[in-house]
Amino acid sequence: MTAAAETSDALARWQAAWAEALAHWSKYTRLHDPRLCQSSVEASREGLTGSFAMIRLADKSVVIDLQKVHDTGLDDHAVEILAHEIGHHVLAPATAIDHFRLLARIRRGLPTLEAHAPLIANLFTDLLINDRLQRQAGLRMAEVYEAIQRQNGGVGSGKLWSLYMGIYESLWGLKRGAIGGPLDDDRIIADAWLGARLVRVYGRDWLVGSSRFSALVLPYLVDDANALGKAAALLHDTQEAGEGSEPAGISDFDPGELEDSIHPSADPAITGEDSSGKPLPPKPDGPGGSRGQRREPFEFGEILRAAGVKLSDTEIAARYYREQALPHLVRFPVREQGRSTEPQLEGVEPWDIGDPFDQIDWMQTLIQSPTPVPGLTTLRRVYGEEPGSDVRVEPVDLDLYVDSSGSMPNPQQQVSYLTLAGAIIALSALKVGARVQASLWSGKNQLMCTDGFVRDEKAVLAILTGFYGGGTAFPIHKLRDTYAGRRPDARAVHILVISDDGVSTMFDADERGNSGWDVSAAALAAARGGGTMALNLWEGHKPEWIGRATEQGWAIERVRDFAELIEFARKFSRRHYAAAAKDRAA
Q1: What is the pLDDT of residues 368-414, one digit of tens each?
Q2: 191: closest CA among 230, 221, 229, 236?
Q3: DSSP-based three-state secondary structure for 30
Q4: Strand blocks (E) in 469-519
Q5: Torsion region of 401: left, alpha or beta (phi above 0 gives left; psi -120 to 50 gives alpha)
Q6: What is the per-residue pLDDT across 420-431, written as a single tens digit (0 to 9) for each?
Q7: What's the sign of the alpha-carbon dihedral 434, 436, 401, 518?
Q8: 366 and 424: one domain?
Q9: How many other CB atoms are there within 10 angstroms of residue 165's CB atom?
Q10: What ranges in 272-416 are assigned the alpha helix state H?
Q11: Distance from C-alpha of 199 to C-alpha of 124, rounded to nearest angstrom
Q12: Collapsed DSSP state (helix, strand, coil) of residue 511
């Protein structure tokens, strides 16, 4: 048989095996037909390197490297390999969010060895999937490992690999050492039995089980972190599983996550000391519990990267603060702006290519010519406006200045309540149609800001998650230039500054010699929406300039620590901004 015929025959066998593999789970899945790559070069273009198979959770795709399958001696196990990849979609981790949560728990159980979490998570989910396929579906999963061992002289070495294979031997009642498990090491034999019990007890509650699995393998990783050898590459089929997924649901710790990393030998449900045979119930939340506790942004980023998500530090931070802000969003204040207008049809005019497609008036177009020619015979309706009877409501824009001096935390590394408060208020404004100008400032010439007032959420968050860590010099020139020559009929703006007593630099002279007090007064008058300063000031401290700023029109909000900014952000619209807008609109 020629090489081309062999390739065609292999493709036909794998395509036929797909339907059989699906039948072992469910024919009603969201998976695409597998991408069967005839060469490793073709597979690498799909993002598959190292292993002979992979799954991507974002686009529900399974990729197979047929060349590497052949080289590994697995040509006769198409159904087993495909069914295993389907298991990652159906059983574990199933979704990108659960994949993130799984990695978070595994990382928690591997202190100082978190870099190995992706592989350990993969090995654990493989145990769940393979056990089900071997016992319930009757597939030859044990033979897959036998073939790999035979063809490659063993993909792993050392005690950790012996433990892992021993778990399979215990699960399936195989002879010791049949696929590389322990022969006479009592410790590994005992831990393999615990691992098998763990898979059976926590087969459904596998997130909790993963924490215990990481505790089981930790001592072996400590002894030899590289003991898995070729397995790290050959069997790691979820290495890029999270690529392209939208990060969500992991900026907070899961309930029980901080307490679940106990060794299986200490779990009575696994050892049999619990007569009920049920897993330990989750610990109640409260003191020492984990509900509502935030991860640090750097850990959030490490989890995403472990899952294969490829984002910059700024993009990761933006997603972190957006997720943290969403539960706190409140309706941004709006104000009545006189009577609304109602559209009135005035006629038709030519519709040209580049105009919105839904603006075409097909009736008038076909009357003009029974054969429409885009840009020549197509027409669209033209509308004018006349005063209506309803009151028009217009949101108040937001001009936000966030301090990023050396006394503030780096929002990409640890939680910054200034950034989070700014995100809550800015996203609330965007939610109701307002525009936002966000400015991040520190020392002289340290300023980044959006391109004026924008409706772009990503642009705003990119500014808020930046960091300088320099001196303290409020950007008076930015405040001055934003409102210089502002039209009286322009939309009202509320100016919000989040800082500490370093904001006093706002009232220094600018580079032209103008008084900061004059610039501040002119900006408030031109903005017409009021101004607020949310400041971290210690108890009893009242700087001299606060009285004059209050007289000028600034509302001063004191917080004892930056964590209180969250509550300020939630109440800001109702208690301060909305009241000011209402008074000015009356």
Answers
A1: 888 888 878 888 888 776 655 555 567 899 999 999 999 999 999 99
A2: 221
A3: coil
A4: 493-500
A5: beta
A6: 999 999 999 988
A7: negative
A8: no
A9: 26
A10: 297-306, 313-325, 362-368
A11: 9
A12: coil
* Nearest residue to 56 (alpha-carbon basis) of 19, 112, 99, 91: 99
Q: What is the sign, positive or negative, of the torsion defined by CA atoms of 403, 408, 413, 416?
A: negative
The residue range of the domain holding 469 is: 394-585
Q: Cβ distance 87 to 53 under 8 Å?
A: no
Beta carbons of 92 and 209 less than 8 angstroms apart: no
When comparing pLDDT for 1 and 553, which is higher? Answer: 553
Picking from 229, 245, 271, the residue at the C-terminal end of a domain is 271
314 inside domain: no
Structure tokens of 279?
């897993």
Q: Which of 316, 206, 295 has the alpha carbon at shortest distance from 253?
A: 295
Residue 297 DSSP SS3:
helix
Q: Which amino acid is at 440?
A: L
How far is CA 420 from each of CA 173, 424, 479, rounded to the nearest angstrom? 54, 6, 22
The predicted-structure confidence for 25-73, as pLDDT tens digits, reads as follows 998 888 999 999 999 999 999 999 889 999 999 999 999 999 999 998 9
Q: Phi, psi (5° rounding) for residue 540?
A: 85, -10
* Measured distance CA(42)–CA(48) in Å, rounded: 9
Among 270, 116, 293, which residue's Cα sits nearest to residue 191? 270
> In sequence order, what are the residues at sequence separation of 6 or more whose Cβ sits closer than 8 angstroms to the Cβ of residue 172?
131, 134, 135, 142
List the CATH number of the domain containing 458.
Answer: 3.40.50.410
Rounded distance between C-alpha atoms, residue 100 and residue 278, angstroms: 26
C-beta atoms surrounding 444 within 10 Å: 13
